[in-house]
Design goal:
This protein has helices at about 5, 115-155, 260-275, 285-295, 325-330, 340-360, 365, 370-380, 390-400, 435-445, 455-465, 490-500, 530-540, and strands at about 20, 25-30, 155, 175-180, 200-210, 215-220, 225-230, 230-235, 240-245, 245-250, 280-285, 300, 305-310, 315, 320, 385, 410-415, 415-420, 430, 480-485, 505-510, 520-525, 545-550, 550-555, 560-565, 590. It has about 600 residues and is an alpha/beta fold. The protein folds into three domains: about 15-115, no CATH class; about 155-450, Aminopeptidase (3-Layer(aba) Sandwich); about 460-565, Alpha-Beta Plaits, CATH 3.30.70. An eight-stranded mixed sheet has the order 3-16-11-4-5-6-17-26, with helices on both faces. Strands 20, 21, 22, 23, 24 and 25 form a six-stranded mixed sheet that branches. A two-stranded antiparallel sheet has the order 1-2. Strand 1 and strand 2 (about 25-30) form a beta hairpin. Helix 4 packs antiparallel against helix 8.
Length: about 600
């Protein structure tokens, strides 16, 4: 006789021996294959019948096994253990059978098993844990297969070295979002230029702060005049080809024109803003349709009736939930809103993306497995990504970082521009030379366009405090100057400027830095703080550029500070103090607010 039939096998999970008795509605412990089974006791006294209720006569609400007729043998039945026929009219489940009194049972405790409740609870828990483990295993296998399916959906192309190599979890993130006007895909052949190569019709640089407390979505007008740089591009056969750049052309020609790929658009954005994107994502017309349908539509608002024959959008004023073709028509509309140009359409697209972000972050979406699956399908099928985002795990990690954002701190704004003065008929725009550099500086320096958290304000105040205190005379400032990514000759030009015009005579050119730096820094020892404050004032350095550390010796063997000119260095005498907030006159909106298109 094996251990299980004896009911005391040490390696047998007791939970596996508990089964449901269809006659009593109770779980029973199957100890052997021949001994009678004792039901788990219920309340003392007869049970009241419960006609008309599910599980009548079963105070725990359990019902008999589905698909089993009364009297049909249940689990664990066999010869000598037939299920008794029902004898009590009106009862769906016969009354619980009582055991005879045994010598161990005192009078008045009939029908009650001498088993501790904790033991029973433990058995039920073990049984439930076994079931849960099975479900987790099944889900894990299915989940793996589904992830493989999503990986197969992803289309990626090389970034040709134009990006940073991919986003990092411990740094600010810059993602370039590109919407093309390519008409390929089901249902898109009727829109405008059927032969379009797929230009950068809509481009947004999404900057997410290092602490994930805020983000800025910067729209770049397609008709902005820019210089498109030379673009090394990997061809289908694996060979490299440099596509020549073009000075003074529309921004949208940075993609599609002459075989240019998204990496060319990345390079153009870097040339324009000084910000190198980490990754890019390219969406076509179908992406707008499928993503909006996946979330059940997004809510938009119109301040007037719109009937645009070009985009096929026909909606009365008011609030509407749109998806599919209507969503695509909405983001393509321009002649019926604002001044009827591309800048007016950008405002409409920003309103749409704000609504989409609110919907993506809503409980209605996040708690719906079906919507999340549809989003995964739509996103992996409709988007083309760079080679650094070519699998679902990388996309998941990026999604988790973006998911930390609060929509009230996601700001939409547009590159400040003015009409092109070289044109009589205004068709293109050029940078606003006063405002555009400020906007680019804000993003480069990770400054929020909205109110930052109190903690961030405290950190900024602590950094600014480095500039407070006594300042040494310029003649006492000892500094070594290194070129860490600035234009060639910058270290010598700065040395001459400091010695001749600023009186910093104890300075020297120490050549090139060991590695390039994005930002200019001044390293100093604690006893050189007064010198650092003076040099920061002269150079226009911010508190964040000052790096307390250790001093090094100069050519004369005397301790000196180290000034490393980074890629942000603009020339001797040009201030490097970044702005600490967005200008009040910059037009912007946040994703938490509903705005009606005018």
């Amino acid at each position: 006789m094996d251990a299980h039939s004896r009911g005391r096998g040490e390696n047998v999970d007791p939970a596996d021996q508990w089964v449901l008795n269809p006659d009593t509605g109770e779980y029973e412990l199957r100890l052997g294959h021949s001994s009678p089974q004792s039901p788990i006791p219920g309340p003392r006294g007869p049970r009241p019948p419960g006609p008309g209720k599910s599980g009548a006569g079963n105070p725990r609400g359990r019902s008999a096994a589905p698909g089993r007729a009364p009297g049909q043998p249940g689990r664990g039945t066999g010869p000598g253990r037939e299920t008794p026929e029902r004898e009590t009219p009106g009862r769906e489940v016969p009354p619980q059978r009582r055991r005879r009194n045994t010598p161990e049972e005192p009078p008045g405790r009939r029908g009650r098993r001498p088993v501790k409740r904790k033991g029973k609870a433990r058995k039920v828990l073990l049984w439930g844990s076994g079931t849960l483990a099975f479900l987790v295993l099944a889900t894990g296998v299915g989940g793996y297969l589904y992830l493989e399916h999503l990986n197969d959906n992803i289309t990626s192309v090389s970034d040709d070295g134009a990006g940073t190599g991919g986003f990092s979890k411990d740094k600010a993130i810059n993602i370039l979002l590109i919407g093309t006007d390519k008409r390929t895909g089901s249902g898109n052949e009727g829109y405008g230029d059927k032969g379009s190569a797929g230009h950068a019709d809509t481009t947004i640089l999404l900057h997410v702060s290092k602490d994930r407390s805020n983000a800025t979505a910067l729209s770049i007008p397609r008709d902005l005049i820019v210089d498109v740089p030379d673009c090394p591009t990997e061809q289908e056969d694996g060979s490299q080809k440099v596509i020549p750049g073009s000075p003074g052309v529309r921004f949208n020609t940075s993609l599609g024109q002459g075989g240019r790929t998204p990496s060319c658009t990345m390079r153009t954005v870097t040339e324009l803003t000084g910000i190198t994107p980490d990754n890019f994502m390219v969406a076509d017309f179908n992406a707008v349709k499928t993503l909006t349908s996946a979330v059940g539509g997004v809510e938009v608002c119109l301040a007037k009736d719109i009937d645009d024959p070009d985009s096929h959008l026909k909606l009365p004023k008011g609030t509407h939930t749109i998806e599919g073709e209507d969503a695509l028509a909405f983001v393509r509309t321009r002649h019926s809103v604002g001044l009827g140009g591309d800048l007016s359409r950008i405002g409409l697209q920003q309103q749409f993306l704000s609504a989409l972000m609110r919907k993506l972050k809503s409980n209605d979406t996040l708690t719906s497995p079906s919507k999340m699956i549809k989003l995964a399908e739509a996103g992996t099928e409709a988007l083309t990504v760079d080679s650094q985002l070519d699998n679902i795990n990388k996309l998941k990690d990026l999604g988790l970082e973006l998911g930390k954002l609060n929509v009230k701190n996601l700001t939409f704004t547009t590159v400040p521009v003015v009409d092109n003065p070289a044109e009589k008929v205004k068709a293109t725009v050029v940078l606003d030379s006063a405002q555009a550099p400020q906007v680019f500086d804000l993003i480069r320096n990770d400054v929020s366009f909205t109110e930052v958290k109190q903690q961030k304000k405290k950190e900024a105040a602590a950094v600014a405090a480095r500039l407070e205190g006594e300042k040494a005379p310029a003649s006492e400032v000892r500094v070594r100057i290194l070129n860490g990514g600035a234009v060639g000759g910058s270290a010598q030009a700065t040395l001459s400027w400091l010695q001749v015009q600023q009186g910093v005579t104890k300075s020297e050119n120490a050549g090139n830095a060991p590695a390039p730096l994005a930002r200019t820094t001044l390293e100093y020892a604690p006893d050189q703080a007064d010198q650092a404050r003076r040099l920061a004032e002269i150079m226009g350095l911010s508190g964040s550029a000052l790096k307390p550390g250790e001093s090094v010796t100069n050519a004369q063997g005397v301790p000196a500070m180290t000034l490393t000119l980074g890629k942000d260095f603009k020339g001797a005498g040009v201030s490097l103090t970044p702005p600490d907030k967005a200008p009040d006159d910059i037009k912007k909106s946040t994703a938490d607010k509903v705005e009606c298109a005018q």
